[in-house]
Structure formats: C-alpha cells, structure tokens
Design brief:
The protein contains 3 helices and 5 strands; from the N terminus they run ββααβαββ. It is an alpha+beta fold and 116 residues long. The radius of gyration is 15 Å and the shape is elongated.
Length: 116
C-alpha cells in the first residue's frame, strides 16, 4: 500500500479533562499517514485519480478547530474517521501530540490506526 504523509499540522482546540484545560484552546500537533493505491494518479497525473490531501487537511482542520474533546484519543479517532470518509483511503494512522500536557515533557501523544 502506498502512503501520503501530512506532517506536523499545528492546530488549536479545546481538549482536556481539567477545568483550566477547557477554558481556552490549546495547541495540538497532528500527523496523518494515509494509505491508498496511488498507482492510478502516478499513471495519469490527474487529481481525479489521486487522494486529494488538501481537501482532507481542510476537513481535519475545520473539525479540530471547532471541537471540544476530553481525550486526545477521541480527537485522534474523529480525525481517522474523517480521513476514511475518502473512499480512496484504505488505512490511516493518526498521531495527536499535546505539547505541555505533562510537566517536564515536551508533549504527550497518542497514535491510532484504523482501516475501512
């Protein structure tokens, strides 16, 4: 299976279980690996035969920036579902980093993989 990488998508949303985390949007960093058969696009050089990763990025961005989740696990799951809405995407791996979530660490992250 071929892969498309969307790396280090910096977004802001309400995420966390503590009251102070729910007052203002926080930074999250999203990484997405889309698995699909890219050979049709490689043959034809036509966007119609490709996974339009710009559209996927835009839908992920819109959802995340309007979201309010308690857990980054749930946020990652919603992102994966959005990616799998594209019929050409067969598998997706989503990593969500929450910088500053724990003291003395750069970030905490979850990674999930989902398939159609």
């Amino acid at each position: 299976m071929d892969k498309i990488f969307i790396r280090d998508l910096a977004l802001r949303c309400i995420v966390g279980i503590y009251p102070e985390e729910r007052r203002e949007k926080q930074d999250v960093i999203v990484n997405i690996v889309l698995e699909a058969d890219l050979s049709p696009a490689a043959r034809t050089d036509r966007i119609e035969d490709a996974v339009n990763y710009k559209e996927i990025k835009q839908s992920v961005r819109a959802m995340v920036e309007e979201s309010q989740f308690f857990l980054i696990e749930r946020l990652a799951g919603r992102i994966a579902s959005l990616c799998l809405d594209n019929p050409k995407v067969m598998n997706v791996t989503v990593t969500v980093d929450k910088p500053g979530a724990l003291r003395f660490t750069r970030s905490v992250a979850v990674e999930i993989t989902r398939s159609r």
